[in-house]
């Protein structure tokens, strides 16, 4: 994804949220705040973007988002369950109407047979609606490419959630 595409996706998200008076938050692990950065790179984003949680460690996921220790122990940080709890926790701990979460293995190390490099879980939560989860296996891309593809996926999920 190019920088222009990221900018355009973030601008489209903000325009649609502004029209519908929706506020956004993010909960990021492997992207380290890149989704929040893409959104806040757009002038005027402060009336739409509430906050971004960068929860790289399991402890941060628990303390900042309320991810259950049991979830992390049973399923791990890189799981559908954790992504869902992250997105829902971002809503609970913000004034946002919708939130995206990202947790994965960006590499180049850290992968296992069950959770290889390039595996990323996403969730998007909107108040009053069911939380949506997507799993992506980006494969043997570089760390930069996995993170860039994850930003694109998260922005697209937020846009889809706004349009529902």
TrEMBL record:
It holds the Pfam family CinA. GO terms for molecular function: hydrolase activity. Gene3D superfamilies: CinA-like. Keywords: Hydrolase. Residues 11-161 form the CinA C-terminal domain. SUPFAM superfamilies: CinA-like (SSF142433). NCBIfam families: PncC_domain (TIGR00199). This is Nicotinamide-nucleotide amidohydrolase family protein.
